[in-house]
UniProtKB/TrEMBL annotation, chain A:
GO BP, one annotated term: regulation of DNA-templated transcription
GO function terms (MF aspect): zinc ion binding
Statement: the UniProt record of this protein carries the keyword Nucleus: yes
Protein's name in the database: General transcription and DNA repair factor IIH subunit TFB4
Organism: Oldenlandia corymbosa var. corymbosa
Record has Nucleus as a keyword: yes
InterPro entries linked to this entry: TFIIH_Tfb4/GTF2H3, vWFA_dom_sf
Function: Component of the general transcription and DNA repair factor IIH (TFIIH) core complex, which is involved in general and transcription-coupled nucleotide excision repair (NER) of damaged DNA and, when complexed to CAK, in RNA transcription by RNA polymerase II. In NER, TFIIH acts by opening DNA around the lesion to allow the excision of the damaged oligonucleotide and its replacement by a new DNA fragment. In transcription, TFIIH has an essential role in transcription initiation.
Main location: nucleus
Entry GO CC: transcription factor TFIIH core complex; transcription factor TFIIH holo complex
Self-association state and partner proteins as the record states: Component of the 7-subunit TFIIH core complex composed of XPB, XPD, TFB1/GTF2H1, GTF2H2/P44, TFB4/GTF2H3, TFB2/GTF2H4 and TFB5/GTF2H5, which is active in NER. The core complex associates with the 3-subunit CDK-activating kinase (CAK) module composed of CYCH1/cyclin H1, CDKD and MAT1/At4g30820 to form the 10-subunit holoenzyme (holo-TFIIH) active in transcription.
Alphabetized UniProt keyword annotations: DNA damage, DNA repair, Metal-binding, Nucleus, Transcription, Transcription regulation, Zinc, Zinc-finger
From TrEMBL, chain B:
Biased composition (Acidic residues): 15-26
Pfam families named in the record: C1_4, Ssl1
C2H2-type domain residues: 381-401
Gene3D superfamilies: von Willebrand factor, type A domain, Zinc/RING finger domain, C3HC4 (zinc finger)
Organism expressing this protein natively: Oldenlandia corymbosa var. corymbosa
Alphabetized InterPro entries for the sequence: C1-like_sf, Ssl1-like, TFIIH_C1-like_dom, TFIIH_SSL1/p44, VWF_A, vWFA_dom_sf, Znf_C2H2_type, Znf_RING/FYVE/PHD
Ranges for region Disordered: 1-32
Gene Ontology biological process terms, A to Z: DNA-templated transcription; nucleotide-excision repair; regulation of transcription by RNA polymerase II
Main location: nucleus
Keyword Cell membrane part of the UniProt annotation: no
Protein name: General transcription factor IIH subunit 2
């Protein structure tokens, strides 16, 4: 663990960024011509490294949202000179494991990834940070999501959203897929996060850096993308 | 001091010293009170080397919490989800007493504020109104409404005490107000009573019987001492009577009324309620709002039946009387309908063998190994068999209402019943029920249960619904869950989705 930090160092806003990456293989294979997973990953890794560079006390945790399971793949806490690339072996292990759990032979469309599970895990982790006492970093959740919403997850996702709202954790969302995600629109609307669906995925890194890298205090001073409307549908 | 003082003098001196001591004690009381109230010494314990240590009451706390959880999950009772609650606040002379710091009414106002917020969080479809007792009369401060801010603002603006409190006037007023609400709502009164007496114009026993007949559940929290008439009122109407010991106990007693109470048996008829899910009007549209009768620009909601514009949800449409909600509002009460199972304690044989257990909590990744004792303190979910630390256990059951383990694996699916072709505003409610079945882990409900859901529905074909298990897709258009205060818990576990035009 890192040595205890003197309080004067904590005057600057320290962020805990929980990043939920959609790894649904069916989704990524459906758009591999226009935007391959490798390009997505390299953008995300650059963004994570940038976040870590912004403040030496910033913490980044990556949770993979798979098709059959969810898992932690990276935690920068306790690492000296943490670099996000070091999550790759863990991510590969997770993907293999996730694929091996698959029982269905064919999938209708691109299927749904388990957003409710990774959101719940992220919130549990954030509660642990809250328990660690005063001077904890400011947590926020960023969902990088592509798969369409799974109607069966509605109740669980809403529960997670309300719990995040009660503990004042904003849920930012960046939708990579073709359609808007009603779940994530509601999540960001209710918790006060930013919802964005980039027009061009080639510029994903720029979107990530300009919108999601800013800490909660700085957001008061910048023009963030405004939501066009919130879809309150249930599923 | 003089040398060789005689006995008497010494005695005299002694008396003086005693007096001084008494005075000192009184002085000490003032600054010591903080510690005395805190009872900080009780959380200290001596270890085997004689050092003072903080008592680890985490385990104890957790045990208590699990007991509570178990007792709550074993008793399945019907609960009233749509509540109409009047909070009656005694602002008579007695509320100005200073035994609570700074005064009773300030403390009560603070607790009511916290209660209102908690209440709407737990009962998003319910409404609250405020009534104050002052100068022998009861006065309606706010009408029933769903906005916490307006109630809190009204209460804080009216804080001042005078005169006597009249329980009868309060009950009469509330009775008249609650008589107008629809029959499916649960009528409740929560009285915060500071006075030790009630100054009534007539026979209060008659009023109590009247409330009992109107099925108004009256609960009282006293601030001074137990009063017979209060106890009698609560007994008769099925409410709870408690007397607060101090501020923290008062807070506890008030917040106990936030979760939905058990429904009164003869009153708990299951029924379906018509609800509308308004669209948010586009920004910049100018319209006259039906609730304030003013011209407003953008940001309102449009009633799907009569197209009137309302300012906030949930509410009742002033024109056609339709209950208007939004689906996130409904979703807030889902955790009452889909409670997650309590986690199991890990068996002692496994506990002593930490190698067989995972190293860290599935939820928060905290190490499960207790560094001091080398034993493991964790619980596991009976469904997904993942292990969680005790802190996550509490968080998951009290705030999150999701098991991260079950949500992270594909196999856990609930039964979802969808109603297609059903249209709220056309001829019938619903024409056919489809059961969307995914990898089913739970038993399907029995046919009777489904039937009892919709008695007298002419188009409702139960056989069809059981066979037509896998409806290809839910209706693509607006799909909103509808459930309300019908029936028993078992049935409530199903979400009925109904298409709204």
């Amino acid at each position: 663990m890192s040595p205890p930090v003197p309080p004067e160092l904590l005057t600057d806003d320290v962020s805990l960024l929980m990043v939920l990456i959609d790894t649904n293989p069916y989704f990524w294979s459906s758009i591999k011509q226009s935007f391959p997973f490798s390009k997505f990953l390299s953008d995300v890794l650059a963004f994570l490294n940038a976040t870590l560079l912004l403040n030496q006390l910033n913490q980044v945790v990556v949770i993979a949202t798979g098709y059959n399971s969810c898992g932690y793949v990276f935690d920068s806490a306790g690492l000296v000179n943490a670099r996000a690339e070091s999550c790759l072996p863990e991510l590969e292990k997770f993907l293999k494991n996730d694929a091996s759990m698959s029982t269905e032979d064919t999938v209708n469309g691109v299927g749904h990834s388990l957003l409710s599970g990774s959101l719940s895990m992220a919130l549990c982790y954030i509660q642990r940070i809250f328990r660690s006492g005063a001077g904890h970093p400011q947590p926020r959740i960023l969902c990088l999501h592509g798969s369409p919403d799974g109607p069966g997850q509605y109740v669980a996702v809403m529960n997670a959203i309300f719990s995040a709202q009660r503990s004042m954790v904003p849920i930012d969302s960046c939708v990579i897929g073709a359609q808007h995600s009603a779940f994530l629109q509601q999540a960001s609307h209710i918790t006060g996060g930013v919802y964005l669906k980039p027009q061009l995925l080639e510029g994903l890194l720029q979107n990530l850096l300009t919108v999601y890298a800013t800490d909660m205090h700085s957001r008061n001073f910048i023009q963030l993308p405004k939501p066009l409307g919130v879809d309150f549908r249930a599923s | 001091m003089q040398r060789g003082t005689n006995g008497e003098g010494r005695k005299f001196n002694g008396n003086e010293e005693e007096e001084e001591e008494e005075e000192e004690e009184r002085n000490q009381d003032a600054w010591e009170k903080m510690y005395a109230d805190d009872r900080s010494w009780e959380s200290l314990q001596e270890d085997e080397y004689g050092r003072l240590r903080h008592v680890d009451n985490k385990a104890l706390h957790h045990a208590q919490y699990r007991k509570r959880l178990r007792s709550a999950s074993t008793t399945r009772i019907q609960k009233g989800l749509i509540r109409y609650l009047y909070i009656v606040i005694d602002l008579s002379r007695a509320a100005g007493e200073m035994d609570y710091k700074p005064s009773r009414m300030v403390v009560v106002a603070r607790q009511v504020e916290a209660f209102i917020r908690e209440f709407f969080d737990q009962n998003p479809l319910s409404q609250i109104g405020l009534v104050i007792l002052k100068d022998g009369v009861a006065q309606c401060l706010t009408d029933l409404g769903g906005s916490p801010e307006s109630h809190i603002k009204a209460l804080l603006g009216k804080l001042g005490c005078s005169g006597d409190a009249s329980l009868q006037n309060g009950l009469d007023l509330v009775h008249d107000l609650l008589n107008q609400i629809p029959s499916y709502g649960h009528r409740e009164v929560l009285i915060l009573y500071s006075a030790l007496s009630t100054c009534d114009p007539g026979d209060i026993m008659e009023t109590i019987q009247k409330c009992k007949k109107a099925k108004i559940r009256c609960s009282i929290i006293g601030l001074s001492a137990e009063v017979y008439i209060c106890k009698y009122l609560c007994q008769e109407t099925g409410g709870v009577y408690s007397v607060a010991l101090d501020e923290s106990h008062l807070k506890e007693s008030v917040l106990e009324h936030a979760p939905p109470p058990p429904a009164i048996a003869e009153f708990a008829v299951s029924n379906l309620i018509k609800m509308g899910f308004p669209q948010r009007a586009a920004e910049g549209v100018i319209s006259i709002c039906s609730c304030h009768k003013e011209i407003k620009v953008g940001g309102g909601y449009t009633c799907p039946r009569c197209k009137a514009r309302v300012c906030e949800l949930p509410t009742e449409c002033c024109i056609c009387g339709l209950t208007l909600v939004s689906s996130p509002h409904l979703a807030r009460s889902y955790h009452h309908l889909f409670p997650i199972t309590p986690f199991d304690d890990v068996s002692p044989s496994l506990k002593n063998n930490p190698r067989k257990l995972p190293k860290s909590c599935f939820g928060c990744q905290q190490s499960l190994l207790d560094p001091g004792s080398m034993s493991v303190s964790c619980v596991s979910c009976p469904k997904c068999k993942q292990h969680f630390c005790l802190d996550c256990d509490i968080y998951i059951h009290e705030s999150l209402h999701n098991c991260p383990g079950c949500e992270s694996f594909k196999q856990s699916h609930s039964v979802v019943i969808r109603v297609s072709n059903g249209c709220l505003y056309s001829s019938g409610w619903m024409s056919r029920i489809h059961i969307e079945k995914k990898t089913l882990s739970r038993k399907l409900p029995k046919e009777e249960t489904l039937l009892s859901l919709m008695p007298g529905e002419d188009n409702f074909d139960d056989r069809q619904c059981m066979k037509d298990d896998l409806c290809s897709k839910p209706p693509a258009a607006l799909c909103h869950p509808i459930f309300l205060s019908w029936g028993n818990w078992e049935v409530l576990k199903l979400v009925i989705c109904c298409r709204v035009q």
